[in-house]
C-alpha cells in the first residue's frame, strides 16, 4: 500500500504520526500546498522514530486541482489517496484519485446546498450527494471510495454498525452525541475562544440547516441549534447541552442500517453558539469572495477565510488546552434479550495523553486515528469493496478489536466504552 496523504495540517499531521508506528504500508507521501509544512511532519517522524528509509516522503500538491492530484498520485504510484483537508476540496481530490486509478478515503463529504425556498423543512443538495452520484464510476473502475471515516463521521458509524449487529434486535434511534470539557488558555492563563477543529468546517456544519432522518419521512431539516438537550458524557466530562447540527452520519447510517430515526447533536455551549450566530448576522460565515480595500488596492476575499485566518490554528493550541473530548452514538430500541435498551457507545480522547505521545491535540488526534485503522484493515484484506461506501458497509468488530488491542498485541491501544443509560 502506497498512501498519498493530502494535507499536512492538524489532522493530516496526526495521521502521519499515528501511521509511523504501524508497518502495514510501504510508503506515505505527505502532501500539502505548503511544502514546508509537509516536510516538517516528515522531519518530526524521523526525529521521533529514526531514519524511515524513505517510507515517508514530502511533496507539494494543489488540492483544488484534480489534474494535479492525479499527477502527484501517479508520480508516486499511490494506491490510496487519503483526503485530510477541508471539505471544499472533496470534489477535486475525489476526481483526481479516480483519474489516477487509486482508492480514496475522506473524513468529510462533499458539501450541501440548502433548499432554495424551504431550507428549514426540506433538504436541497445533501452532504455526500455528489459523491454517491458517482458510485457507478468507482464500481466500474473496481476502486473503493471509503467516505466519512474520521471520528464523526467514522468511528460513530462503526459503533452504530456494531450496535445493530451485536447489541440490538430493533433500533428506534441512532443518535450521535459529541461533547467535551476542553479549555484553551492564553499565556496569562485566561480562558480564550479557540475552536479545537477547523472553524471553516465548524461554521459549515453549525449554520447549515441540520438534517434528521426518519423512516416514515426520510430526510428533512430543522433550524440551526434546534432541540437542545443535556447529555451526560462519560469519564468526567459530565453534562453538556447538545443541539442539532448538520453532519454526515445522518446521511450515511440510513443507507445501510435499520433504524427508525437518525440524529446528530453537538455540544457547542452558549458562548460558541452566540459567536456563530454573530458571524452569521455579520455575513462573516460566507464563502463567496467579496471586494475588500487594501494598501495594495482592492482584493477579493471570502469572509469565512478571514475568520479562519484570524483565529488560532487548531493544530497549535494543544499545549494550551486541557480536558477530554468524547465521540459516540446513543442507541435506543430493543436489545438482544427482547427488553428495552438505551446504550451509548463511545471513545474518549485526553489532550494530556495525545500531546505527550504525539504532540497533537486530542480533537485532531481522535479524528486522525480512525482512517489509519481503516487503511490497515484495507491493507490486510479484512475490509474489501468497490464503489462509494460508508463505514457502515463494513463489519465493525475487526475495526473495534484492532483499535482496542494493546500495541504489544498489534493493536492501537485505544479502549472504547459502552454505557447503559
Compile the SSE list and pairings.
Layout: E1 2-6, H1 10-19, E2 27-32, H2 35-49, E3 56-60, H3 66-75, E4 80-83, H4 90-99, E5 103-105, H5 129-132, H6 135-141, E6 144-146, H7 155-166, E7 168-180, E8 183-184, H8 199-207, E9 211-214, E10 218-221, E11 229-233, E12 238-244, H9 248-256, E13 261-267, H10 270-281, E14 290-292, E15 299-301, H11 303-310, E16 321-322, E17 324-335, E18 340-350, H12 351-358, H13 362-379, E19 387-389, H14 396-404, E20 417-420
Parallel strand pairs: 1-2, 1-4, 2-3, 4-5, 5-6, 6-19, 7-13
Antiparallel strand pairs: 7-17, 8-16, 9-10, 9-13, 11-12, 12-13, 14-15, 17-18, 18-20
Helix pairs in contact: 1-13, 3-4, 7-14, 13-14
Could you walk me through the main structural features you see in this protein, from its secondary elements to its overall organization?
- The chain is of the alpha/beta class and 421 residues long.
- The chain folds into 2 domains: 2-150 and 365-413, NAD(P)-binding Rossmann-like Domain (Rossmann fold), CATH 3.40.50; 155-363, 2-Layer Sandwich (Dihydrodipicolinate Reductase, domain 2), CATH 3.30.360.
- It has 14 helices and 20 strands.
- It has helices at residues 10-19, 35-49, 66-75, 90-99, 129-132, 135-141, 155-166, 199-207, 248-256, 270-281, 303-310, 351-358, 362-379, 396-404; strands spanning 2-6, 27-32, 56-60, 80-83, 103-105, 144-146, 168-180, 183-184, 211-214, 218-221, 229-233, 238-244, 261-267, 290-292, 299-301, 321-322, 324-335, 340-350, 387-389, 417-420.
- Strands 7, 9, 10, 11, 12, 13, 17, 18 and 20 form a 9-stranded mixed sheet that branches.
- β14 and β15 (299-301) form a beta hairpin.
- It is globular, with a radius of gyration of 21 Å.
- The mean pLDDT is 94.
Amino acid at each position: 500500500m502506497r498512501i498519498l496523504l493530502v494535507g499536512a495540517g492538524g489532522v493530516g499531521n496526526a495521521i502521519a504520526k499515528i501511521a509511523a508506528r504501524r508497518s502495514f504500508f510501504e510508503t506515505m507521501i505527505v502532501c500539502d500546498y505548503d511544502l514546508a509544512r509537509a516536510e516538517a511532519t516528515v522531519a518530526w517522524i524521523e526525529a521521533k522514530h529514526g531514519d524511515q528509509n524513505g517510507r515517508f516522503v514530502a511533496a507539494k500538491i494543489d488540492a483544488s486541482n484534480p489534474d494535479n492530484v492525479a499527477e502527484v498520485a501517479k508520480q508516486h504510484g499511490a494506491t490510496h489517496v487519503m483526503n485530510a483537508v477541508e471539505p471544499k476540496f472533496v470534489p477535486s481530490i475525489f476526481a483526481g484519485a479516480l483519474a489516477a486509478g487509486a482508492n480514496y478515503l475522506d473524513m468529510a463529504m462533499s458539501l450541501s446546498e440548502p433548499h432554495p425556498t424551504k431550507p428549514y423543512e426540506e433538504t436541497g443538495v445533501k452532504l455526500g450527494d455528489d459523491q454517491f452520484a458517482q458510485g457507478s464510476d468507482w464500481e466500474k473502475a473496481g476502486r473503493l471510495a471509503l467516505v466519512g471515516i474520521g471520528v464523526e463521521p467514522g468511528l460513530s458509524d462503526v459503533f452504530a454498525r456494531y450496535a445493530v449487529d451485536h447489541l440490538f434486535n430493533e433500533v428506534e434511534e441512532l443518535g450521535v452525541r459529541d461533547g467535551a470539557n476542553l479549555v484553551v488558555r492564553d499565556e496569562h492563563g485566561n480562558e480564550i475562544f479557540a475552536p479545537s477543529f477547523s472553524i471553516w468546517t465548524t461554521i459549515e456544519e453549525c449554520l447549515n440547516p441540520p438534517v434528521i432522518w426518519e423512516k416514515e419521512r426520510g430526510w428533512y431539516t430543522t433550524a440551526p441549534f434546534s432541540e437542545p438537550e443535556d447529555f451526560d458524557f462519560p469519564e468526567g466530562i459530565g453534562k453538556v447541552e447538545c443541539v442539532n447540527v448538520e453532519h454526515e452520519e445522518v446521511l450515511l447510517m440510513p443507507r445501510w442500517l435499520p433504524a427508525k430515526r437518525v440524529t446528530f447533536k453537538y455540544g457547542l455551549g452558549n458562548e460558541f453558539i452566540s459567536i456563530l450566530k454573530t458571524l452569521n448576522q455579520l455575513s462573516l460565515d460566507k464563502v463567496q469572495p467579496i471586494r475588500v480595500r487594501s494598501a495594495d488596492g482592492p482584493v477579493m476575499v471570502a469572509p469565512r477565510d478571514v475568520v479562519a485566518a484570524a483565529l488560532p490554528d487548531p493544530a497549535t493550541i494543544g499545549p494550551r488546552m486541557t480536558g477530554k473530548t468524547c465521540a459516540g452514538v446513543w442507541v435506543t430500541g430493543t436489545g438482544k434479550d427482547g427488553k428495552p435498551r438505551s446504550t451509548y457507545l463511545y471513545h474518549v480522547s485526553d489532550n494530556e495523553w495525545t500531546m505527550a505521545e504525539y504532540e497533537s491535540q486530542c480533537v485532531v488526534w481522535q479524528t486522525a486515528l480512525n482512517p489509519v485503522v481503516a487503511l490497515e484493515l484495507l491493507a490486510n484484506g479484512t475490509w474489501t469493496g468497490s464503489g462509494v461506501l460508508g463505514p457502515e458497509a463494513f463489519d465493525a468488530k475487526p475495526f473495534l478489536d484492532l483499535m482496542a488491542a494493546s500495541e504489544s498485541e498489534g493493536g492501537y491501544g485505544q479502549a472504547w466504552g459502552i454505557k447503559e443509560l
